[in-house]
Amino acid sequence: MRLNLKQLEAFVWVADLQSFRGAADRLGTTQPNISARIAGLEQALGIVLMTRDAGSVVLTAKGRDLLAHARRVLDATDALIAAADQKALIDGTLRLGVTEMIVHTWLRDYLRRLKDTYPKLSVELTVDLSVNLERMLADRRLDLAIQNGPFTRLTSGQIDLGAYGLIWVASPALGLAGQADMADLVAHPILTHARDTHLYAQVAAHFATAKLPARLVPSSNLAACLHMTIDGMGVATMPAAMVADPLVRGQLVQVDYGWTPAPLHFFARYDAERSARIVADAAQVAVGVSAVFNQKS
Hints:
Radius of gyration: 24 Å
Order of helices and strands: HHHEEHEHHEHEEEEHEHEHEHEEH
Strand content: 15-25%
Largest sheet: 6 strands, mixed
Helix content: 40-55%
Structural class: alpha/beta
Distance between the termini: 58 Å
Number of strands: 13
């Protein structure tokens, strides 16, 4: 019996996720199919690669030895496709995680570029806070995360996508256009990002020095925060790239306040040691699309 790439792929994902069910979900098949592929691979090689006990998966000594070889075979297959310049042959699913700021700036352009470059590639999209994306990336529930720092977990693949500055904005109805001081701002609710974000922590620390109490109103949804600001429900510090259109339309005005949080620094992050070549390629596509957006904005 000859082994095949689907068997090797199943072996790698079961080993990485330590779960037959997880590998089945990742590869878009059923758990019995994954079990059959592993059994076929073990029969072809004449060895036991892994054992299952009470729901856990443990590689045998030989399984650990052969895992690196299986990765190299899959990497070589990807390299063959790349050398032939046949990107249309690349299929499967890219599990992509992005923060909301990316959704409201250059995500559409990025997804179009991926579709044009890899027409058979499916993208499973997750939009969440950066802290949650970081956790999902570490658990291998995501292949690629486009997120802002700072980070608490290291990853072997991290590409700089640039920084996005923040500005203070408010509805024209609040009369805050132009110069404003802390007393002017704390006279209104301060609309900001979710409590467990670095942006919220900076805003909270800054206004903790106010002589008057500041009413911070956190939101896990930046779009909702933006709409609340447009409706005059408070003042907000937002990425300038997100509020460019409302400023042009006159729905918002920029507030000239002497302090803003640090710019949001974004990266394309992935596991360079275990991910397929397409993940690194998708990260490079993000570099190009973000650079074009940054030049225009």
